[in-house]
Write a structure and sequence with these properties.
It is built from eleven helices and ten strands. It is of the alpha/beta class. The protein has one domain (5-302): UDP-N-acetylmuramoyl-L-alanine:D-glutamate ligase, CATH 3.40.1190.20. Strand 8 (210-218) and strand 9 form a beta hairpin.
Length: 307
């Protein structure tokens, strides 16, 4: 790996801090940069990240307010870093958060970091512009962000507001594998800087259990890599119990994909998406110490050994 992975987001949030912690738990050099937030930083949030091995030098002291984009010296923060991860949650919170995220991703692009963006659309957010629906606002801001992004992590529903067909209409959010491949290709077509699009595939069964798989669309190769795969190379989704929170799987998937694509030996697209899917499955079924699956357990599952 060799280079730190910088994660940007609200210290009071869940996804960004969880991803930073999961990366550190896997053995990555993880740095967290605090985004603007309404509430003060708590000592507990900072200490938890430090205990996991996350660099917290760019988080204000407990009780203080998070930094604004203008205060962040991105050239210093990104010095020697190779990767940048952030989500759509911070821009969804407020206009200030959106401007901070745009400033951060522009700076990361200028410093030639590889940028990972987890869209993470939440309909309860994106209410900060009067007269504009959350979907419309999220789509408009996300499209600006995507101009600087290398690797997109999303669900099919996340992608729909970003892309348009040739007649100007958004495509249907049909959750078929072919539709997801088409959506990923449309993102790459509209945003030529995007190198890969990862989609977490989920389907609820009648009994409430969830079938979980994943797809990584490699733009250069124009190929969709699927996971998990059987020996016959057919997708064989993991089965998740009905009583688990799927959000935890989304966080683990994002962390797993980021770790894999920044790690020698795992960065080949088929292995990377297999690692990310296994990470999500284990987070939902066998989370391990601290809530994060152990690297050895993820690699064992990829080899066909279920816990």
């Amino acid at each position: 790996m060799g280079y730190p992975i910088v994660t940007f987001g609200e210290i009071t949030g869940d996804v960004e801090t969880e991803v930073a912690g999961a990366l550190a738990a896997l053995g990555a050099e993880s740095v967290f940069v605090a985004a603007p937030a309404e509430g003060p930083v708590t000592a507990g949030a900072v200490e938890r990240l430090r205990a996991l091995g996350v660099n917290t030098d760019h988080i204000p002291a407990p009780g203080g307010r998070s930094i604004s984009a203008e205060m962040g010296d991105w050239e210093v923060i990104f010095h020697d870093a190779g990767w940048f991860f952030f989500t759509g949650l911070t821009p969804g919170q407020s206009e200030t958060g959106a401007m901070a995220a745009l400033e951060a991703v522009r700076a990361a692009s200028e410093e030639e970091l590889t940028v990972f963006f987890d869209v993470s659309f939440r309909k309860t957010l994106w209410s900060w512009q009067q007269g504009v629906s959350p979907r419309e606002l999220a789509g408009a801001v996300t499209r600006r962000i995507l101009s600087y992004v290398d690797i997109v992590i999303a669900s099919a529903e996340d992608i729909v507001p970003m892309v348009k067909t040739t007649n100007g209409m958004v495509p249907d959010a049909t959750l078929t594998l072919d539709a997801c491949c088409d959506l990923a290709a449309k993102v790459a077509e509209e945003f030529p800087n995007v190198m890969m699009v990862a989609i977490l595939l989920r389907e609820r069964a009648a009994d409430g259990t969830m079938r979980l798989g994943a797809m990584l669309y490699d733009v250069d190769g124009m190929m969709a890599h699927l996971a998990p795969l059987s020996e016959e190379m057919d997708i064989t989704p993991y089965v998740i119990p009905a009583d688990v929170d799927p959000i935890d799987g989304e966080v683990a998937f994002a962390a797993g994909l980021t770790y894999a694509l920044t790690t020698d030996g795992l960065d080949d697209p088929p292995r990377a998406i297999g690692f990310a899917a296994a990470m999500a499955y284990l987070r939902l079924t066998q989370p391990g110490e601290g809530g994060f699956p152990a690297l050895a357990d993820v690699e064992a599952l990829m080899s066909g050994v279920k816990p």
